[in-house]
Amino acid sequence: MDAQDEDPLPPPAPFMWACARCTVLLRALGGVVEADAGCFYEQLAVARHVVEEHPEEVPPAHTDGCEQCPHYAARGDGDPGGHWAEHRARGLFLPPHIARLL
Ligand SMILES: [Zn+2]
Ligand SMILES: [Zn+2]
């Protein structure tokens, strides 16, 4: 397999290595990334876990040209499903061009 074209995952936020569940989820994500498999569900699992278990670690809304944040902010419903928070959490463990796809 040729991984030259794939962006490696950035080092995850330090708090994630202090959490057993984060570590398990990140290993699962790293495994599918290395296997060049679709890692959509693994990405969602990590983001969902961070939002539920580490809400204080979820970054604030992006102010550097993110295409997704204004969308979420415009809804004005306080993000009841947590999707905006999941979007922001993705930047903790994914490269920006992947993190901001959702
Ligand atoms: Zn965790
Ligand atoms: Zn954003």
Descriptive account of the structure:
This protein has 102 residues and is mainly α. It has one domain (14-99). 51% of the residues lie in helices and 0% in strands. The protein has six helices and no strands. Helix 3 packs across helix 5. The longest helix has 15 residues, at 20-34. It is globular and about 35 Å long. The protein starts with 13 loop residues before the first helix and ends with a helix. Mean pLDDT is 86; it is low at 1-5. Bound molecules: zinc ion (2 copies).
Key descriptive features of the protein:
binds zinc ion, globular, single chain, 51% helix, 102 residues, 6 helices, 0% strand, mainly alpha
Question: Any chance you could write out the topology, listing elements then pairs?
Answer:
Blueprint (H helix, E strand, L loop, with lengths): L13 H4 L2 H15 L5 H14 L15 H7 L7 H8 L5 H4 L3
Helix pairs in contact: 2-3, 3-5
Structural class: mainly alpha
Total domain count: 1
Overall mean pLDDT stands at 86
Shape: globular
Q: How widely separated are the two ends?
A: 27 Å
Which ranges are low-confidence, i.e. pLDDT below 50, for 5 or more consecutive residues? Answer: 1-5
% residues in beta strands:
under 5%
The ordered H/E elements are: HHHHHH
Associated small molecules:
zinc ion
Q: Mind telling me the C-alpha Rg?
A: 14 Å
Number of strands: 0
How would you sum up the major sheet? none
